[in-house]
Write a structure and sequence with these properties.
- The chain has one domain.
- α2 packs across α9 and α7 runs antiparallel to α13.
- By secondary structure, the chain is of the alpha+beta class.
- It is globular, with a radius of gyration of 19 Å.
- The structure holds zinc ion (2 copies).
Length: 309
């Protein structure tokens, strides 16, 4: 029943709403991350992610249905099985995953540090700088204009869908644990609230009016964002992004960019659009190496290995 409702409302949504419903999910992001590390078979994800069969099956189906993975048959022990490979649009999530990793590394304190981001072209352990692909300039949230048309948060659509919560324990290796970033993009509501903060929504009633979010879920996400130091309360009982919150713009911009590159190709209407004010072009994300200034390519990022012994 819930699945039907979700499918129905997804159909009516625009590019970013759809993407949030599909990609803003902790397990989905971890499955994709492992696919980049070369995992292709069901058992590979199950062993490295400590994920239940039901959850893994559902997420692989969602990724396949949405065109991020495709299946290829192989034989094992005389039985026909399927393996899963990244499609072009699946591989194109690398910027989102890289931006997520960079933000977590810079902003979320942890006992075991995340692996360094190594730019293979210059050989440096480095950070990423969000830039505009059109003009090459570095871009922060203050350099952009956002237009919203339609139902990003699914007025009349998403609001009726239960938030998908990650159940069960996440795997414990340092690569998998991105606790800060997963508060932001591990479920669609966190991602939606962050997006609203980035376009300047500050007051509880305005979040409610813009997002059509239930007061309970909204209260929960705002409280978590304050606990995590992404938002602070203001004197007029509103909310303001901290430096840490503003830095998460990179994650948001990559999500919106991916949505508008790929979901629009399926005929979904563009519901949220970020423009780089300096050059007036829609923001297509380019991630530059902070060390040498050269744009990262997917092949020039050293694949992360779990850190430590
Ligand atoms: Zn530009
Ligand atoms: Zn470099």
């Amino acid at each position: 029943m819930r699945v039907e409702q979700e499918a129905m409302s997804t159909e009516r949504m625009g590019t970013v709403g759809r993407t949030l419903g599909m990609l803003a999910d902790t397990w989905t992001l971890l499955i994709l991350q492992r696919a980049f590390l070369g995992i292709r078979r069901y058992a590979g994800w199950r062993e490295t992610l400590n994920i239940s069969d039901a959850t893994l099956t559902a997420r692989l189906r969602s990724l396949t249905d949405n065109g991020l993975l495709y299946t290829r048959p192989y034989r094992e022990g005389g039985r026909a099985r399927l393996e899963y490979r990244l499609t072009e649009r699946g591989r194109d999530t690398w910027r989102l995953l890289l931006a997520t990793w960079a933000w977590e590394r810079s902003w979320v304190p942890r006992d075991v540090p995340l692996p360094d981001i190594v730019h293979l072209e210059c050989g440096r352990a480095t950070d990423v700088v969000l830039c505009c692909e059109h003009c090459g300039a570095a871009v922060g949230p203050q350099d952009t204009a956002v237009s919203i048309s339609g139902m990003v948060a699914g007025r009349g659509g998403l609001a009726r869908v239960h938030p998908r919560r990650t159940r069960g324990r996440l795997p414990e290796d340092p690569l998998s644990l991105l606790p800060g970033a997963m508060e932001i993009i591990g479920d669609r509501w966190g991602a939606t609230v962050l997006g609203a903060c980035l376009v300047g929504v500050r007051m509880f009633t305005d979040f409610e009016a813009h997002l059509s979010i239930s007061p309970e879920v909204l209260t929960d996400r705002l409280r978590r964002f304050v606990e995590l130091g992404i938002l602070v309360r203001t004197e007029d009982a509103g909310y303001r992004l901290t430096d840490k919150g503003r830095a998460a713009f990179g994650i948001h911009a990559c999500l919106v960019d991916w949505a508008n590159r790929w979901q629009a190709a399926d005929g979904a209407p563009v519901d949220l659009h970020i423009r780089h004010r300096a050059c007036s072009h829609p923001l297509r994300v380019q991630l530059n190496c902070a060390g040498c200034g050269v744009p990262f390519t997917r092949a020039a990022v050293a694949p992360p290995k779990p850190a430590g012994p």
